[in-house]
Amino acid sequence: MGNSKVAISCNPSDGEGSSGIRIVENCVGETLQSYIQEAIEVFGSNGLEVLRANVHADSLQHGWSDLYFPLEKLRIEKRYKAIQGIRWVRKRESRLWLFEHNVIDERDVYAWFYDLVWRQNNQAVVIETDEGKRSFEDFSGRWNKKRPWGYQVRKRLKGVLENIKNPLLLTLTLSDKRIFPLMPINTNLDVVSFAIKEIGGWVREFGKRLFMYQQRRKIDWQFKGWVIEFQEQNNRGFPHVHMIFAGNWIGRINEIQELWAFGSVDLTTKKDLKKRYPGRNFDGIRLANYLTKYVSKSSLAITKEGVHKGYAWLAFTGGRVFSVKHEKKVVNG
Description:
Blueprint: E1 6-10, E2 20-24, H1 29-43, E3 48-52, H2 53-59, E4 68-69, H3 80-88, H4 92-100, H5 106-121, E5 124-129, E6 132-137, H6 149-161, E7 167-172, H7 176-179, H8 191-216, E8 223-230, E9 239-246, H9 253-257, E10 265-269, H10 270-276, H11 284-296, E11 302-303, E12 306-308, H12 309-316, E13 322-324
Antiparallel strand pairs: 1-2, 1-3, 4-12, 5-6, 7-9, 7-10, 8-9, 8-13, 11-12
Helix pairs in contact: 3-5, 5-12, 6-11
């Protein structure tokens, strides 16, 4: 293979064993074989591939092969120790340490998330009354289907967006070819789960850079919030972000693109929305409803198909599905 960068990839088709990627530099002969043997010991031989880095990047264009992990392959009854262990670990860095050091695997992550969703949909609060004990369903938790989380999001978005007359949507997408070189050599994460882990920080950094860009050009900062969505077809599983702004102008799209190093940016104006949906009036309330449909997909975190991998990794790494800017209230008197 020469003194080139090589990728060792494992993606079991039958769901047995962990998936992962490892990049090694200047490996030939016995050195390469030692890395391959190490990968077999960690991942197993099923689904193992050794590729040049550029070939490997081409093979990742469609993200995950499946967005859902089948429930029957989780064997949740055998994973209660792992589930309990993850429940007691609150910090995302500590959870990731468990995964990176092979204490838990990706199926443990999905089983933990399944347990989290189940508990939030089957909890009740018991209160002692004069008539005896009474139980009330507990609707707390973002994964509760009985009171869909989209309802709460719509309520918050409505409060933020109801007075916006000229909404702008800035969509940030991810490119696996740009993300792949950023991954650590020894990570157990695949390129999609790595992107999910990092997306929050990337968006925050982009927001800071865009704010400074607008300040230099004396453009009013009218950011209102963002909503995350997972790709379902091309680049399956990769998150992308819809950022919400008020006003008619946030900057030149080619200059904004330079601020986002992880993929492409796309700007949608009120005029664009009207072209896409003729006859509809996109005021603030309708925009809130339009955006909420992305967040409401979180109710599909657990279905008959299985566990939604994207939401599972987002929850495991402490990520957020949406963020709304908090406006300062002015109190008179």
